[in-house]
Amino acid sequence: MSNNSIHTLIEEARSFSPSSKEELEQFRLRFLGKKGVLNDLFAKMKEVVPEERKSYGLMVNELKVAAEERINTFKEQFEQSEQSTDSGQDLTLPAYPMSSGTFHPLTIVRRQIINIFSRIGFNVSDGPEIEDDWHNFSALNFPPEHPARDMQDTFFINLEASPAHYKGPLALRTHTSSIQVRVMENQPPPIRTICPGRVYRNEAISARAHCFFHQVEGFYIDEKVSFADLKQTLLYFAQEMFGAETKIRLRPSYFPFTEPSAEMDISCTICKGKGCNICKYTGWVEILGCGMIDPAVLENCKIDAEKYSGFAFGMGIERITMLKYSIKDLRIFSENDVRFLDQFKGVR
Ligand code: DAH
After folding, report:
1. Structurally, how many domains does the chain consist of?
2. Element containing residue 60 per DSSP (H, E)
């Protein structure tokens, strides 16, 4: 073959532009295949006269490089466009994992509490976080000189005058018992409701106290509601929340808005009552306050205390969460550390 016709082949290879993979493959076979042009040209090398052999070899090599360059360029192009179209994708491959975030542990436990009480007929009520003196204190039987009203405990809100629909000076509510008053004022018995919400107290922040935390208030008002109803409701709650083997005990206590009042302990969830540092070796941990709603509180809310009676209870969601998930420091709830939050992945 003359150098001229090799030159034509080089030109042809360099300008080759296939429109399909098949066309490219035909080109490859024609030039680089076993019986292709290049093998043929290399085989003819020995027929070339010695003085022309060198330039012949260079030309053939140039053709080989040109053909290979075309093949590699288009092979890559076809592979890329295959990946970007659906037809070339393997739809059976597993999807990339998506990070789905988590519920905050306090949200998880609030939802669990709501769920447990809703199964025995309690609905959910809400109230404002900025509250007036009447709903947070007075209606709940707190005498004006009660220490809970003290500047040290309560965040008061400085306003020249409270808005018209508020009764008395404003503060951030110190407990969710204020919602109890609002519900009783607005709806006749029977009432069976729980009231979750954030509360605020002017306290130094430590592992066991914070200036804001969360509570769930619950109460039931009807004819002939008794202390036995309270006890059975709380036993049901404790066993649903902490397991069927959980025991409860009620200790006499004092709250201005309940009479009689009690605090409830559960058998320690960590040592199962044997004694550990969480329960201070007593086998019991306190989880809530409760009692029979004081008739004066019912009357403050225009409910006939001769006809109706009720029980109430209030618990801290942080405390329940700490016991349930063995969390030792309250501050971690508001630090937003994803290493902590990620441990609740998938829990609802
Ligand atoms: N409000 C109380 C507190 O913040 C908790 C409480 C105790 C609520 C007894 C109640 C109750 O409804 O009956 O400490």
Report:
1. 2
2. helix 50-83
